[in-house]
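pasting for the record
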Amino acid sequence: MFAPRTEEQDEFQTVVRDFFATVSSESQVRQDMDTDTGYDPQVWDRMARELQLQGIAVPEEYGGQGFGWTELGIVLEEAGAALFCAPYFATVVLAGMSILESGDAAAQQEFLPGIADGSLVGTLAFPGENRRWDESGVTVTAQKSGDDWTVSGTCPEVIDGQNAGVFIVPARTGQESGDDISLFIVRGGDGVTTQGLSALDPTRRIARVSFDQAPATPLGDGEGWGQVSRILDVASVGLAAEQAGVARRALEDAVAYMKERVQFGQAIGEFQALKHMAADVLVDVESAASASRYALWAAQDAPEELPASASLAAGICTDVAVTATHQNIQFHGGMGFTWEASPHLYLKRARADQVLFGDAQFHRANLARRIGAGSTPEAVR
């Protein structure tokens, strides 16, 4: 049964928030986003060494802390609120949780310890050239020669692709049907080419990744599209937690500004019109937090509810993050859209996230199908 966070989890959130306040201040974010890698390797190492955040949900037998999705969600929420520049989402959620969810003991033994100690950066290479988040998005192909596999194809927009040493790659092994889709692990190097791209969100790196007969290892039992769909649900849950943090921080910054900005002899937060606008955003932010935390609980304790809860959280948090960050710019007035102020960075993060793993319309259509309320052409996952 879904339950509120415990006192220990609230204390953990405070610790994580304080850590990000130290390593992801506005000045540090601007410094990191101007580097080639988009993050500070020393902070990444410190994150693993001092708080072991990369291994928060990795089982203890693989060097992690052995916590669950709730604790991981806390880290993701605070990382989103701080616009933390690092391959955390790509490595821990897209790669790490994909490997964990696969049930592949050999892959877990090989890769999870590196993720937990911060020595390995990974990501998910999907979708393909057509940029669709359904079965048709699997355009990478896999070929078997003897006991060895190789993959070939291009994924035009891969989160932290240029930083990754390991790629989780859905690929077609035969005819174009969901049963002929399998997951593979590909190491960076032979047959892998990455090209960093200029992106809307300067705080998150995106790369074009091409595979040319790159050596690959099957991940899991080859369950077809169903396995990939679960991974995309997991990714949506993780992203929703980030988006909830982005939305919360946008509202907090707006309220702080309205308390200090004086106009007509009083703080602008005293004007009733702005109070009403802020109250509306607060309702949205609380809704996003509730939807996100429910999906995190389902991912951990109620896997049968994961598909619907993932679509619910993604649909709500995507829209709320955009609304809250846009309103934050409006609250800041003329300063809101200037480069020197921070609101535009949060809006860019929200807008960029808006199309990851399917937009809000896609997820609402998927939710309708998954709860049996209807079926539309968009609801294909």
